[in-house]
Amino acid sequence: MNKKIVIKTIAKNTNLPKSNVELVIENLEELILDALRKGETINFTGFIKLYTKQKNERAFVNFQTGESFIAPAKVVPAVKFSPKFIKKL
């Protein structure tokens, strides 16, 4: 399932215009991105928790050249589904 199908399905189920549903979805995406960039956690109780994790720097080896290098520390997004949601699945 992709974004277009989600928009089409929600529009059909709610009798709302696709343009309105698309606007809501795009605003939700931006809201989530802004919150995660600030380090905030987004929690939809009974459904999903979105947050960020700090990954420490790591040493890697390029096996073709034998050269080793350090991958810098970074922040990555993380997702955790609620036990209630998992049970429903």
Short description:
With 89 residues, the protein is of the alpha+beta class.
Q: Any key phrases for this structure?
A:
single chain, alpha+beta, two-stranded antiparallel sheet, 2 domains, 89 residues, elongated, HU Protein, Chain A, 3-stranded antiparallel β-sheet
Description:
The structure is a single chain. By secondary structure, the chain is α+β, with helices and mostly antiparallel strands. The chain folds into 2 domains: 1-40; 41-89, HU Protein, Chain A (Irregular), CATH 4.10.520. Helices cover 43% and strands 30% of the residues. It is built from 3 helices and 5 strands. The chain has helices at 3-14, 18-37, 83-88; strands spanning 42-44, 48-55, 58-61, 68-71, 74-81. It has a 3-stranded antiparallel sheet with strand order 1-2-5. α1 (3-14) packs across α2 (18-37). It is elongated, with a radius of gyration of 19 Å. The chain starts with a helix and ends with a helix. The mean pLDDT is 95.
The major β-sheet equals: 3 strands, antiparallel
Return the CATH architecture of the largest domain: Irregular
Terminal CA distance reads 16 Å
DSSP helix fraction? 40-55%
* Strand-pairing-aware structural class: alpha+beta
The pLDDT mean sits at 95
Global Rg: 19 Å
- Strand tally, please? 5
CATH class of the largest domain: Few Secondary Structures
Regions with little confidence, pLDDT below 50 for 5+ residues: none
| Run of helices and strands | HHEEEEEH
Strand content: 25-35%
Number of helices: 3
CATH superfamily heading of the largest domain: IHF-like DNA-binding proteins
